[in-house]
Design a protein that fits this description.
- It contains three helices and 16 strands.
- By secondary structure, the protein is mostly beta strands.
- The chain has a 16-stranded mixed beta sheet that branches.
- The two termini are 31 Å apart.
Length: 257
């Protein structure tokens, strides 16, 4: 996330963390820890060769509000050519939000382990392409989150962040040495009880060890455009829509207890 003074509350929420509205909403049934453990056995290497995974679902029909200037639409999650596409576009359905976005998340909750994605980000001012874990009040949980976010204004960098019981301000920007919008790369983090370690293409690039999240969370990905956060994302450029982030594979491997 960012440390600009656009307003501490806005900025503390600006990561994909503002999923306080979307996660667990619209009648979603929370999975038990046992169910998450079973699902974890099947999530060690999910590709989209055969389309959508039964362990995940797209968000559909609501808006997070605040800086999220999209309504999540199921049709903005597509599966073609062995990949998943998360799309930002003009919203064709009635509503006060002018744009639509794509969000895809696990049905179950997961804990300590290695989380990995292979993705290609959107290059465009005002947008975010992400991979993260999240849980919060809509799940009857504290707000815990671990983020990998690529900001469309500069896709030569990736932003890492995390929240523990709603406390964030752990943003770190890593220089990738390549353009994340030009090809697929592998981004990962390992979530331990006492630390988080982030990786890019298999290389450890950053770690954190203060106030680490403890609550099992959903695995999530989304693509969205912002409003009111121009100092973080730049003003959204809607001249080239639709905009598409692509995902080749995702995985979670739990640590042995």
């Amino acid at each position: 996330m960012r440390k600009t003074r656009l307003g501490a509350v806005l900025l503390a929420a600006a990561s994909c963390a503002v999923l306080l509205c979307s996660c667990g909403a619209k009648g979603e049934v929370a999975e038990t820890s046992a169910a998450a453990e079973v699902a974890a056995e099947d999530i060690s290497a999910i590709t989209f060769t055969n389309g959508e995974s039964e362990l995940f679902e797209p968000a559909d029909g609501w808006c997070n509000g605040s800086m999220f200037n999209v309504t999540w639409r199921k049709e903005n999650c597509t599966f073609e050519n062995g990949k998943m596409q998360l799309i930002i576009d003009k919203d064709t359905k009635p509503g006060s939000v002018p744009y639509s976005g794509g969000e895809y998340r696990s049905k179950a909750f997961y804990g300590y382990g290695r989380y990995e994605v292979r993705m290609k980000a959107i290059k465009n001012d005002g947008v975010v392409s992400s991979f993260f874990t999240y849980t919060g009040p809509s799940d009857n949980n504290p707000w815990d989150e671990i983020d990998i976010e690529i900001l469309g204004k500069d896709t030569t960098k990736v932003q890492f962040n995390y929240f523990t019981n709603g406390v964030g301000n752990h943003e770190y920007m890593h220089d990738l040495g390549f353009d994340a919008s030009e090809d697929f790369h592998t981004y990962a983090f390992e979530w331990y009880e006492d630390k988080i370690v982030w990786f890019v293409d298999g290389e450890e690039v950053y770690s954190a060890s203060e106030n680490i999240p403890v609550t099992e969370s959903k695995i999530m990905m989304n693509a969205w455009c912002g409003t009111g956060v121009d100092s973080w994302l730049n003003a959204f450029d809607d001249s080239k829509m639709p905009l598409t982030a692509e995902y080749e594979s995702i995985s979670f491997v739990p640590f042995e207890k």
